[in-house]
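Summary for the steering committee. One of the milestones for this cycle was to obtain a three-dimensional model of the protein with cobalt (II) ion bound, which we needed before selecting residues for the alanine scan. The sequence and ligand used are listed below.
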Amino acid sequence: MNSEIKESFEKTRVAGSIASGALDEVAKLIKPGITTHKIDALCYEFINDHGAYSAPLFYRGFPKSCCTSVNHIVCHGIPSDKVLEEGDILNVDVTAFKNGWHGDTSRMFEVGNVSIKAKKLVKTTYEAMMNAIKILKEDVHLGDIGSTIQQHVEANGFSVVQDFCGHGIGETFHKEPNVLHYGKKGTGEKLKVGMIFTIEPMINLGKYETKVLNDGWTAVTKDKTLSAQFEHTVGITKDGYEIFTLSKKIS
Ligand code: MF3
Ligand code: CO
Ligand code: CO
């Protein structure tokens, strides 16, 4: 790896570990009765305390430091005074910006006991992301990523959201390429050593269609069924890949 790539990996590693560290703290907070605003306040503080900025705050007018997407919210849920209830599932999506570089990651959290269906949706979404990460190396096609995710999701009877995708990331929050979570093997751009991007499949229990609410951000499933998402920031190396946003606690 040349020194430019080494430096970009090192900076993404730092930003990525702050983002995943924030989620490790969020995990301790989740219980019935807390508000999504409380999650946002924790993310804001944790990220600032680590000398970084929350990239979502004021990004294209987004008003908060993280996204909290509960139940049928697909992504970009805005933290509010909404109270979490037993049985809810939610995604918390955090992006840290430090020394000019971004690290972007999200996880699902279960509030108390959740239904078996919800658990299966969350597990399948995580597996789909990890299956796709495991195939990463130079010369793999972008379409191989999408196809790996789609196959696993549809084999479990769920559907892949098509309206949002993963993205290149670095000094810019969202850049090329678009990383689709569905597609055909052997199609699309080939991965090159040094590329840094996110994989962040959004998976619906019902149909894949989404719509954006009047706040201009909150994306929900059209059929109001549950949706789940996980996200990691990854980089392509000589022998495969590096995940920049692993939890120090779990994966
Ligand atoms: N973190 C989200 C992503 O994975 C983007 C959030 S943009 C925001 O790309 F403005 F909604 F925060
Ligand atoms: Co992202
Ligand atoms: Co994100």
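Key point for the committee: Residues 56, 59-60, 62, 67, 76, 93, 95, 104, 198, 200, 217, 231 surround MF3 (ligand 1) (CB under 6 Å).
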